[in-house]
Write a structure and sequence with these properties.
The protein has 337 residues and is α+β, with helices and mostly antiparallel strands. It has helices at residues 44-54, 105-112, 168-178, 213-217, 230-242, 298-301, and strands at residues 9-12, 16-21, 24-29, 40-43, 61-65, 68-73, 76-81, 128-133, 136-142, 146-153, 162-164, 183-187, 190-194, 198-202, 225-227, 251-257, 260-266, 271-277, 287-293, 306-308, 316-321, 325-331. The strands form four sheets. An eight-stranded antiparallel sheet has the order 11-8-9-10-22-21-20-15. The radius of gyration is 24 Å and the shape is globular. It starts with 8 loop residues before the first strand and ends in a 6-residue tail after the last strand.
């Protein structure tokens, strides 16, 4: 029996790998002859598991034999049964790619999407908005707790405001990081990428139900800023994770007093606390503890260079970084007395 095109299949040919799903259409040029004389559709999960077991430097030989693709690698060998389906993966024929994205655009996508990665199913509420503003390109997402935003030079970005639903921002970022000299276009039909080794077409989606820019702009003013060492904070978070109570959301408390930032984690079985001396922190600034969900902090902390203290009085912490410029704005909850 035949089956419709779906995400678990990929197509192997003489010099390329192709895949298509509701998340986009992708072609990867492998750079050498695969040994196949015609295209073959196989199960992607089985293929990935086999490749992972062989190692990155292995020499793989492929041959088509009836309804199978035989493979061999050193002393190992096997086969994959072909997947039959009525549809074919469409060719990507888009030819105009006027935009060379900024070198930090992929990281900006990952940072901007960090506030909505776990909110993938509520249609109309969550996603990453990409919007040109004068000479910059602003990327923003939000959920009920956090706002994440990043900015990069606009360059020759060819479109207006667009919206990407998870997991498209992550897919796009990973494709750009893997592409050699990527160029892009953005049209009403979606996002198009071309490069020396990757060609792709990804979908955009309908606008969100709310405008995100006013919320993001509310926190643009930053007067009380303290530089921090993010690697020290990451070590604390790793320790907190290791002593966290099972099946209970892990939250972290943060307070400021006497020129010190203090992170604390308290559980039923264990607790930990650590001081962080921050450069530029006014010793007279003092704020009560705010409670922060740790899962939302992991991605932003990879790029955090400073925290903004202006809004801690409202139980709002801002993590800030550069290259790309970004802010992760997260609201805490007051500690129970």
């Amino acid at each position: 029996p035949t089956r419709p095109l779906f995400r678990s299949s990929l197509e192997l040919s003489k010099d390329a790998v192709r895949a298509c799903s509701e998340y986009g259409n992708l072609k990867i040029l492998v750079g050498e002859d695969t040994g196949l004389t015609e295209s073959c559709l196989i199960n992607v999960n089985y293929a990935v598991n086999i490749l992972n077991s062989l190692g990155a430097e292995s020499n793989l030989t492929l041959t088509k034999n009836g309804n199978k693709v035989n493979w061999s690698c050193g002393e190992a060998k096997g086969h994959l049964t072909l997947v039959e389906q009525e549809q074919k993966i469409p060719e990507i024929t888009h030819a105009n790619h006027p935009w060379e994205p900024d070198e930090n655009f992929a990281d900006a996508l990952l940072l901007a999407s960090s506030a909505c990665q776990s909110a993938t199913i509520t249609v109309g509420l969550y996603g990453v908005v990409i919007e040109p503003a004068e000479q910059i390109l602003r990327l923003i997402s939000t959920n009920t707790t956090a706002i994440a935003g990043a900015e990069v030079p606009k360059g020759t970005y060819p479109a207006g405001k667009i919206t990407l639903r998870p997991p498209i921002p992550t897919i796009l970022a990973k494709l750009l990081k893997a592409s050699k000299n990527p160029k892009m276009d953005v049209t009403e039909d979606g996002i198009f990428i071309t490069s020396e080794n990757i060609v792709a077409h990804l979908p955009t989606c309908a606008p969100l139900d709310q405008e995100l820019t006013p919320y993001y702009e509310k926190y643009r003013e930053c007067k009380q800023v303290a530089a921090v060492k993010a690697d020290e904070i990451r070590r604390f978070l790793t320790r907190a994770r290791g002593t966290a109570d099972k099946h209970v959301p892990l939250n972290i408390g943060l307070k400021v007093s006497e020129g010190k930032l203090t992170l604390e984690h308290k559980g039923l079985a264990a607790a930990s606390e650590q001081f962080f001396l921050a450069e530029g922190l006014d010793a007279s600034i003092s704020y009560e503890s705010v409670i922060l969900p740790v899962d939302m902090l992991i991605i932003p902390l990879e790029h955090t260079k400073a925290i903004v203290l202006d809004y801690l009085g409202d139980n709002t912490l801002i993590l800030a970084g550069f290259s790309p410029d970004f802010k992760f704005i997260v609201g805490g909850s007051e500690v129970e007395k």
